[in-house]
Amino acid sequence: MTVSYNHQVATSKPYLILKLLGRWKGSVWKAVSVELGIWLVLYYTIFCVYRYAFGRSAQQRFEDFIRFFDASMKYIPLDFLLSFFVTIIVSRWSTIFQNLGMIDNIALFTSNFVKGTSDRARNIRRNIVRYCCLSQAMVFRDLSMQVRRRFPTFEALVSGGFMMEHELEQFHAVKNRYAKYWVPLNWALTLCNDAKKEGFIDSHINEYAITQEIRHFRTGLSLVWQHDWISLPILYPQIVFTATHVYFLLALFSRQFIVTADRVPGEVDIHFPVMTVCQFIFYVG
């Protein structure tokens, strides 16, 4: 979830970083709190069993497993997997955000290049923009549950003012087994041609400028729709999910402090795994 925090970092203050780190909504703390809590419960369960329930021989046997798991963790290339996965996710998010589509350019070009004050000229300008907004609403219905709840059916688009009754009939008359969000854009391009023929657009250059803006708008919507249609191959999240959780499953044992005489000299017995918790927040978060 994207949470706006720009107003909090607009000015530089000594305590700003603490205020930013203390946010809960949309934060890394909220994202990892449940899993970290479960991990700590398991860690301290093993901690208590190892220290207080096992005898000396059982402790020594358990310490062999600690050393084995500690040596085995290096075989999980977690840094490489997470960096590769995060790069893909951020790239997809950035591409989708940049291509959501802003109607402003089409509206500005249409209002400037489609001349005339007659009802016909005004209707052409309004309908070109409305058809583009209609196409965008159709795409977003397939991407966002909020938009789908707002417009659960095409009839809801009619009642919302995006489409007229006769246009809905024309839309349903188009036989296509795939998504038909391009149909309103085709209507908008047809209106551009009609406006040129009727003299509301005074040159082919101006007509071309409007049609190019519509084309760029459609290309962006198509790219967003394709990113939703073709998901990231499931093996990538499976590998990352498995590697991360196996890593910290091994850490439940390998990060236990050895309490017998076989421990490394100079090690400090810290009852709370500070660095492992930090690592958990960085990797899982």
List keywords for this structure.
single chain; 285 residues; mainly alpha; 2 domains; 13 helices; 0% strand; transmembrane; ion channel; transmembrane helix
Describe the structure.
The structure is a single chain. By secondary structure, the chain is an all-alpha fold. The chain folds into 2 domains: 32-75 and 235-273, no CATH class; 101-229, no CATH class. Helix content is 70%, strand content 0%. The protein is built from 13 helices and no strands. The longest helix is centred in the N-terminal third of the chain and has 26 residues, at 28-53. The model has no long low-confidence stretch (mean pLDDT 87).
Low-confidence stretches: none
- Give a short account of the largest sheet: none
Distance between the termini: 13 Å
Helical content (DSSP H or I, runs of 4+)? 55-70%
Please give the radius of gyration in angstroms.
Answer: 30 Å
Average pLDDT works out at 87
Give the beta-strand count.
0
Q: Please tell me the total number of domains.
A: 2
Structural class of the helix and strand makeup?
mainly alpha
Outline type: elongated
